[in-house]
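Sample entry was shown:

___
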Amino acid sequence: YDKYKCRQDIARTKMLAGRLEALRNAKDTLVKVMAEENNKDLLENHENRLHRYKTEIKETRAQRLLEGKSDRSLVSNILETWRDLKKLRERQEYIVTSTKLEIIVDDHDNTEEWETEFNRLVVETLEEMGEKNIETNIPKVRDQVFSILSDSLRSPGEPIITFIMSKIEPTSEDSITAKDELQRRLTLSKYSIWFDVIFNGHIVCESTLLPIDDSFSVDVNQKFVVEIHQWPNTLSLNIHCENLSSKNMFTKNPIAELYIPFPLSNTTLDVVDIENLEFSCFGNQSFQNAGVGSGVEFKVFPEDMETQCLYTSGEVLCKAGWGTFNDKVLCPPENYFNRIYSQNTNIFSTKTEKILSLMNDLHPDPNDPNNVSFFEALKNVDEEMVFKMNSKFSVNIYKKMLEFCSEEELDSNPRLKLLKLRDRGEIEFRMAKAVPLKEWLIPKDIFNEFENRVATSELALEVAGLGPLETSRIWGRYSVIKLYDKILKQCKLGNRNKIARDIIVEDTVPDIGTLGLTFMKMFQPKRPLRPKRKERKKIPVKSLSGQEIKVVINVMRAFEVPVRKNSDMMMGDIAMIPVQPFIEISFKNQTSRTTTAEGSNPTWNQDLQLIVRSNSVDLCPNEVQPIDDCIHINMYDEIVIDILEDGRTRETNIHQRLERHWLGSCVIPISALFNSSQIEGIFQMNTPRHLLGYERLVSNSESSHYRNSTFLSLFIMVQPPLHHPEPIMERLDCSESFNFERYLEYWSAEGAKQFPGRPVKTLVIHCSGKSVCVTRFFRPLPLPVISEDVPNTTAEMVARFVSLIPVVNSNVLLIGRFDVWLTGDQLLGLLFGGGSGIDHGLLLCCYFAKLNIRSWLLLGTGVSRGEAAYVLTSRPVPDQPTAGPVYDVWDPLTGQKYSTCDSFSPVQEAYCLINAENIWLNVQYEKSVPRTRWDVTQTRDWNPAFGRYQAAPTTAGSVQPDTVDYTPAAIADARLLQDKLETTLRNALMKWRVKSKTVWNRYCVSVLRKILPNLERETWNGGFKDINAVGNSYLAELQHLLVSHKMCGFPINRPYSNTEVLVDAIQTTGM
C-alpha cells in the first residue's frame, strides 16, 4: 500500500500521458505546416524535428505502457493480499494486525478514451513498420495492440479502483483461544530492542532496553549527544534484539545496521525534518508457535502449493542535527556539505548512489521545473574535493591532551592484541581460556603462526614455483583444513547459548546418605595385602606448556622377520645365514635402540624412552591445524663385514665393519598417543614385498596363512597421561526431519547407556554444515579405469586405488570432537581424507557396492590409529554353498585384506556396522574382532537402528553423487614430478653421505624403472600368489647386474602428499 500511495502521489502515469498527448499534438501541427511549406531549407529542418518527435513519442509511449502495467499489477496484488488476509482472519477467528482496507469503485465509462488510444496506437505501429519496410498484417497488428493495451490500460467497462488504508482494533487477548497465538504473544512480550549509535566505526552511545508491543513497534523517544573530535565519515545505528527471559549473555551481534546521512551545516534538530529509514536483515529464526519466523519457508494456508519466505524488515523514524553552544551551531565547515549536496534540494540527506538510482528509475524530464534539484545535486558532486578537505581537516587540539596513550601503543600491546584476536575467533587463539594479566608473561613468538598464516595467501600456492601435481596436493590439504575450520566456527556459533551449569560450577550439597558412607569408610578394616590400583592423574593438553612428556615403548618380540641369503650367482647354491635384527625408534633428533637378537622370531622385552617436549611439538597450534609429528620405529639387520685385505694376518689382526640393512618400519602418529594413554598390540610393519638379499622362511604347514609381512609386539605408554577435550555437543542444523532426528538421538543415547565404551555414529556433519544420517553416504559409484589392459576391475584393485589417497592427520583437539564426512566426489577432488579412514572407507564401500560385494563400514579401534574405520565384506565359500559366508576386514588406508579370524589383524575392537540399509550396534559381550559373530540378522548380537518402528532413509536421498567425473591421468605432469623427485632425492642422498662418494649407475636405474610397474601390478591381487616365482623373475631381470655388483635394497611404496614426507621416509631407513 505504501508503494501504491507513493505512485499515486507522483502520478507518473498521468504525467506521461500528458506528455504523450502534447507530443502527438506537436507532431500533427508540424505535419500540417510541412504540407504548406515550400522552402527546402525549412522543410529539411521540419523533417528533422518530425523524426525527433516520432522517437520521443515511441519512447514516451513505451514508458507510459510500462508504468500503466505496473499500476495494474500493484492493484491486483493489493486485492489478492487483502483477500488472503480476510480469509486468514475468518479461519483463525481473531485479528492480530490493525490493518483495514477500504476499496472505492468508480464506474466511469472510458470507452471513447480506449478506442481513441487504440486507433492511435494502431496507426503509429503501422507507420513504424512501414518506415522499416516490414510487411504489415492489419488484423494481426490490431490483436497485438489490443493485448498490449489490455495489460497497461483500463479496459472498457472496467471500474476505477482506489484504496484507503485505515485501522481497526485487534482482537484482545482475553477473546483469543488459540494456544499458538497466545504463546506467540507471550514470546513477543519477552523480547526487547536496544540501539547502538556508531560514529566513524566506534560505538559512542547505547539506548536502554525497549519492549516491543503487539504491533511490532517501539517508542524510543531518546536523544543521543555525540561529541565529535574527528572528521565525520559515517554515522550508523545498530539494532539489537534480546530475549529477557533467556540467560544467554552472548547476543551482541546486531540484527541490522542502518546508516544515517549527515545533516547540512548550520542545520539543528529544530529545523530538520524527520526521516524514514528502512532496514532489513537476512538472518534465520524459527519459532514453535504461530509466528512465521524470519527466513523460514511457510504456507499461508495448508492447501497452498507454493511456500513463502519472509525476512525481518522495518523502518526507523529519526532525525539528526548539529548541536548548539551559546547560540552558535557546532558543525563542520560550510563548504564541506555545500559542494556535495544542493542547498535548495529537498533530498539533501540522500547520498550520491541514491540520487543516481532515482535518476535511473524515474527518468526525470530535465525541462520540468520540479526536477531541477536532481540535476543541481549531480552537478555539485565532487569526490576529489571531499578527499582533499578530509586530509586538511584539523583535529581538536584538546584530543591529544585527553589521550592516555597513542594509537601505536595500543596496536603494539600484546595483551590487547591477544584479546582482540580471541574475540574475533581466530583459529590460533580461539581456545585460549585465560589471558595473562601481565604483558611479560605472554611469549614474544605467540603471534608468529597467525602472522604467517595471514601473510600467506591462497594464491601463494601457485606462485611458489611448484608443479601442477604438487600444487593440487597442497591445495587439497589446504581445502580440507579450511573445511574443518569453517564447520568448527559454525559449531562455535551454536555454543553461544549458555545455560547456568556451563558458567557456574557448584558442588552438590551432601545429604545424610553421603555423610553416612563417608563415616563408614573411616571405620572399615584396612587390608594392605589387597592393594587397589590407583588411576594416574590425567593432565589437559592445554596445560603442557614448558613440560616434558615421556613416551615409554616396550619392545617385546617380532614375528616372521626375513632372513639373509648368501647367493652365489655363478655357482647357483644358496646358503641360509641367521639374521640379527634390532629395533630403533626415532623422533625428530632423538634415537634409541634395542640390543641385537638372532633369528626370524626374535625377543627383546626392552624398554625404550623418548622425551617429547611441549615446545618441540606443536601440541595445540590451533583447532584445525593437523599435527604431522610421528614416532618412527625401524627394524634393521646388523651385519659384520670382514674388511681385512691380507689373509695372512687374519690370525693376529681383526678388521671388521658393522653394517645395518633396513628390514621394515612402523609409524605411530603423536596424535594417537593423546587419544589413548597406552597402546598395546601387534603392529604390522611396512615391509617391502621384495628385499634384495633376504627371503622369508615358509613351511608347508603355514603356506595357507602366509602373509608376507613382519609383525612387532609393542606396549606404548605416555607419562603423564593426557586428557583430551570433551567432544562438541552442539546441535547444528539437521537436514533430516525433526522426529527422525529425535529418534536417532534417542537410539544412540540408549545404546550409550548399555554400552558406554562403544560409540556409534548416527548423525554426522556434511560439508554443507548440516547434520545428515550416516546411511545417506552409501550409494554405488562408477569405478575408475585403473588399467586399460585389465578388463575386469577386482576388489583388490579398487582397494589399492583408494589407499593411494593421502590423509590429513587429526589434531589433538579434534579427536572425537565432531565428525565431518566427505562424499566420494569430494574425496577424489581434494585427494585428502581424514586420518581415521572414514572417508576412504566410505568410498571403498561405494565401490564394493558397484561390484555387487556386500560390505559394511566398520567403526572400532585399531592398533596404531585408535578410533578408526575399516570395511567389512562377506563372500560365500566356493566349494561349500550351504556353509555360512566368510567375512574379511579391509584397511582402506593400506588396501590390505585380513580375515576376521586372523590374530594379527590391525582391528582390535568392533563398535558398530553401517551401510545404506541400517546401523547396527555391537551388543555382544566380546567386542574383539576374532571373537565377534558377524551375522547382522541376529538381533541378540547386533541391535539395528531401523526396523518396524522407524524406516531407514531411502537411497534416493543419498548425499553421494550419481556419477563421478574422473580426471584423465596427467602423464606429462607426472613425468615432471618424477624428474623433480629424482633430483631432490639425489641431492639429499649425497648430502647425507658426507664421508663417501656417491656414484650413480644410470643403467641400473633404467632396469629398476622397468621393474616398478610389475611391482604395482602385483599389489592388484594382494601379492599372495606365486611370490617366489615373481621374485625369481625379478632376479632374472637383475641377473646381469648382480654378477658384477653387490646390491642390497628394497622398493618403497607410499601415497604421495609432498616431497618432504618422502625425503623423511628415505632418511629413516638409514639406506
In short: The longest strand covers residues 656-669. The mean pLDDT is 78.
